[in-house]
Amino acid sequence: MAVSDDPRHGGADFGAPIPARDRRFKAFLRFIVAKGIISWFNRLRVVDHHKIPTTGPVIIAPSHRSNVDTPFLGAALKREQRFMAKESIFKSPFWTRFIVALGGFPVKRGSLDRETLNNARDILARGEMLVLYPEGARQEGPRIKPVFEGAVWIAARAGVPIIPAGIGGSHGVMPIGVKLPRPKKVVVVFGDPMYVGDPDSGKRVRRSELDAAAAELRERLQEVFDQAQILAGTPNPEWSEDEPGINDRNEPWADGE
Q1: What would the pLDDT profile of 27-46 be if each residue is shown by its tens digit?
Q2: 154: phi > 0 → left, psi -120 to 50 → alpha, else beta; which?
């Protein structure tokens, strides 16, 4: 663990445990948002939460179609979680402290840098839950985009399971360009745990295994995303492998995302 030397971060140590006071603040805010606003305004439904281990390190890998995905996921999860957020929102010591209190830590635009990876590994080493969007940034369309290897690499190195999470209906709550959320139904569906390599072998996972795991995670995430969209009343339309851009990997954390 290391203290950030960026003056905007106010000396934050992003890999450190969240203090008890901040955890109480997050629990209070979650009660207001999850039990009040989201459960009433968006009729949040959670499917197969039992697939998530009740203790121990785990990576949650959600679909990402709206800026409100993180609060919906936070409302759906029963355990405390940490999550990566684009570096640009950590713009002052005040905002940094607020986001860290909610469980966030920064990731640099376009890559998972060594500092971010070390923070993620520290969090998992303490047995915490880590939320990591495998598509990198918010996306559009019915097809899960090619996933970045950060999620499977971290899972392989830490020997922890990845659980895909499909978030259905969130795009209708706050589409790109819309500033205020809309009262649309949202459903979160959790998939089966997935391991990368053999966590008990102690051997480093080969590049070919990481590529295969990233492809498998994409398909597993597609399955729960499709299911969540159907249950939310916003089923995904048919898509084709020949559709332009469907296999392009967009740069994560692009401006305006």
Answers
A1: 888 888 776 778 778 889 99
A2: alpha
